[in-house]
Write a structure and sequence with these properties.
With 282 residues, the chain is an alpha/beta fold. It has helices at 40-46, 74-87, 103-110, 132-143, 147-155, 178-190, 192-203, 209-217, 237-246, 262-265, 267-280; strands at residues 3-9, 12-18, 24-29, 50-55, 95-100, 117-123, 224-229, 250-255. Helices cover 40% and strands 18% of the residues. The chain has an eight-stranded mixed β-sheet, sandwiched between helices. The radius of gyration is 17 Å and the shape is globular.
Length: 282
C-alpha cells in the first residue's frame, strides 16, 4: 500500500510516496517542472516486486515548501538526493532510476559509495546541457523577467500544449496527459516561491558539469543500466550508447516509439528493464 510521507532534509521537507514492503528499494527521480506522478504507471507495473520510493523534488512543480531562503543548484540537488537516501537509511542495494535530469550521474561522480546501482533513463548528459529544445526553452525563460510565469501560463492553455516541438510536446512520443500537465504547471503558475526556486536552479547551471560527471563515471565500477528512446528529440540516442560504453558495467536498452518521457511512453518496457536489472545485478 502506497503511503505519502516527508523526509526532513537540510533545505526542508521533501514529500515522497513509498510502496513499502521488503523488496529492493528503487528510488524513482523525475525531471524539471514535473513531480513524482510521471512514474505512476511504472510503479503500478513494478507492483510488489520492489519497494518504490518516489520523491517529488523541488523542481518548481512541488507543493511542499522548503525552508525560507532555501536555494538549489544542479550540484546541490545531486547532493540532496544523496541526503534523501541517507535520511531514509537506504542501503547499498538501492537502485536509483532517473528520467530527464542528470543529477544521479552527478551524485555517482561525487559520492559513488552512495549510489550502489543506477538506471539512467533518457537523461541530459555530456554537452547536451541544457538539453534539447525543452531545456533551452526553460533556460531562455529564466533569463527574461517574468519568463517562467509566462511559460507556465502558456502551458496552462491545453491547445497550446500540443504545438509540435515545444514544451512537453517535444519530450514524448505520445501526448502527455492533460491531467499530469495541469498538476505540474499549477505550482509554477500560482506560487512565486516555487518559480523562484526553479529560476535559481536554472541560473546556477554550469555548462561543463555534465561533461565533468561523465569523466568521473569512467571509474564508476558498479552495476548501471542505460535506457533510451530511439525517437528521443531532446536527449540524443547516441548519448545513451556513449554512456553505456563509458560505464565499466554499463548495459544498454533502446526502446522504439519512445521519447524522453520513457515512464509515460513505454512504462511496461521500462518497468521490465528496471525489474530485470534489479534482479540480475543483485
Amino acid at each position: 500500500m502506497t503511503t505519502t510521507q516527508q523526509a526532513e532534509l537540510s533545505v526542508g521537507p521533501i514529500a515522497y510516496d513509498d510502496t513499502g514492503g521488503d523488496g529492493t528499494p528503487v528510488v524513482l527521480l523525475h525531471g524539471l517542472a514535473q513531480d513524482g506522478t510521471v512514474w505512476r504507471h511504472v510503479v503500478d507495473e513494478l507492483g510488489t516486486s520492489v519497494r518504490c520510493i518516489v520523491p517529488t523534488l523541488p523542481y518548481g512543480s512541488h507543493r511542499t515548501p522548503l525552508r525560507p531562503g532555501a536555494q538549489l543548484s544542479p550540484h546541490t540537488m545531486a547532493l540532496l538526493i544523496g541526503e534523501f537516501a541517507d535520511a531514509l537509511e537506504l542501503g547499498g542495494d538501492t537502485v536509483f532510476v532517473e528520467n530527464d535530469a542528470g543529477r544521479i550521474q552527478q551524485l555517482a561522480a561525487l559520492r559513488p559509495d552512495r549510489v550502489g546501482r543506477m538506471v539512467v533513463a533518457g537523461c541530459e548528459a555530456f554537452d547536451n546541457y541544457p538539453p534539447g529544445p525543452g531545456g533551452k526553452l526553460l533556460d531562455v525563460a529564466s533569463r527574461v523577467p517574468g519568463g517562467l510565469a509566462f511559460l507556465a501560463h502558456v502551458l496552462s492553455v491545453r491547445p497550446l500544449r500540443r504545438v509540435p516541438g515545444t514544451g512537453y510536446a517535444v519530450m514524448s512520443h505520445r501526448p502527455v496527459p492533460h491531467d499530469l500537465i495541469d498538476r505540474w504547471v499549477e505550482p509554477l503558475r500560482t506560487d512565486p516561491t516555487a518559480r523562484a526556486l526553479l529560476h535559481h536552479y536554472l541560473r546556477s547551471t554550469v555548462r561543463t558539469e555534465m561533461m565533468e560527471a561523465a569523466d568521473a563515471l569512467r571509474t564508476y565500477d558498479r552495476p548501471a543500466l542505460v535506457v533510451w528512446g530511439r525517437q528521443d528529440r531532446m536527449m540524443p540516442p547516441a548519448h545513451g550508447r556513449r554512456l553505456a560504453e563509458l560505464l565499466p558495467q554499463g548495459r544498454l536498452v533502446e526502446l522504439d516509439e519512445c521519447g524522453t518521457l520513457i515512464p509515460l511512453d513505454r512504462p511496461k518496457a521500462l518497468a521490465s528493464a528496471i525489474g530485470d536489472f534489479t534482479r540480475d545485478s543483485a
